[in-house]
Amino acid sequence: MVRETTAGHKILVFSIVAACLIFGYLLLGTIRTSPEKNDLRVMSDGWYTEEGNVKTDVSLPGTLACPDGSAELRTDGLPENSTGQILTTRAAKYAIEVYVGERLLYRYNDHGQKRNDTVLSNEICFIPLPDKMEGRSLRIVYHAEPGQTEIAVPEIRVGTWNATLLNICRQGAYSLIITLTLLILGLLTVILSVVVRYRGGRQLRIINIGLFLLFYGFWCLTDSPLVQLLYSYNAQITYLNFYFFMLVPVPLLLYVRNTGEMRRYRAFDAFFGVYALNIAVQTALALTGKYTLFQMLWVTHCLIITAMVLGLTLLIRENRRKPSAEIRTCLWLFTTAAALCAVSIVLYVFAEYGAYQALSQTGILLFVLILLSVVAGELVQNLRYRTEAEIYHQMAEEDKLTHLQNRRAFDLRMQGIELGTEHCANAALVFMDVNGLKRTNDCYGHDAGDRIVIAAARCAEEAFGGIGYCYRIGGDEFCAILPDPVFTEAELLERLQKQVERCNSDPASERPLSLACGCSFLRGADGTMQSVSDWKAEADGRMYADKKIAHEKMFADGDPAAPRGEMPR
Prior knowledge:
Shape: elongated
Number of strands: 16
């Protein structure tokens, strides 16, 4: 157990390191090589507004008056070496336009997605500057909302692609680290669920957690400024961001449904149906241009709140109906998730975007770590129970002396063949019996007889263990069941005889081993299938005939130790 746990920890550490290296490689791959210096400069000064012939200097960040609904900010000189670089500013909510002279260089485009102020305040405008900027003025036009008389102009930066990218990563390092952690944990949890399923364990709740982590992680990733820079926050990224957000509560509610006997509540299925209908309707309305996903965001928020209330209500009802530690733990966890959901929505509406994102991600990460620790404890306990059950099952169906399967296991296999649950077109049955075991026990003691039995078991296992199942069905009786055999009867008996000869040629062997054997096929040469009882009787009859030949040969050789008139046992 300690060795397996250590190996699991090594695999976990290796996977996390590998994922970090891959992420770092992909990130570095986006950094463009350039002979220019990777610097990023904040343009606080050099800006002015102009009314008539009057220029008024403006220091950024600052405020601009907009009596007619718009304001212009000008500069006659960008920093040196700004040619071909990138100008960045968080002014998407003012639908800015950027001109070089009279030429329109950039206009903010929401791609038909009417974002709210919370999102727009976080969105960064990336304006590539033209190759020739020397001696040319730059003009930025800000558009205010109806009734707004002042515009709060954020800071403006100019730098190379590399410097801009690194600055975005540095500013959002905390969020990126948490996002990466959630994605790695999600991937590892999904892999764990596959491993548990392969081992025959219960994996539904594990994969629910994995999907929750992946959905939440990808939602955060597609919502990050880094993705804005790399993909210009186009419509496809916006759709992906919304769909990941819509899907986040689904695996969490599935986790609750897969706890204990919670599947008995049909309200889960009804809610999932409504949720799927909501996604389909929102998609149709967005594609037809009737509404944008941002305009329908309140519907998704209401459904998420409904999911939290539904999960809590049903967990409380189930805990009253049939209290259990599993339900109480799930209730506590889901209450925590609901509280985090409520806080996140409040922060989204009333707080700054950065605070909302950082606090909600931190809360989710802590919640996930607690959830994974609880599930890990349950998984270890289930694996322990499963291991104990397998040991008890093995003890019930294993012969202690030879470690072959016993008569009970043989009867179950034969019953499966008779009922058709053992799927095989044909099968060979080989009965084996140790010749002279009774004489060995009488003359040399039961310890010597046990050694003969063990030697017979090893011969049967070496001959047939790789192509079928071997059993000890009596004191000196053995059997092998060979599904869909590719060998003839003569070849099967020859395989056994070679193992007996090898055993007898071993210098450590105290006395020779002799086995009587009989073989029968479930399906005859003409293709007809005989009954299981006839199949067994035929193999047993052929073994008895072989034993009789061995008995006659024993008396012909004049063995004084064999009692007359008695079959050698």
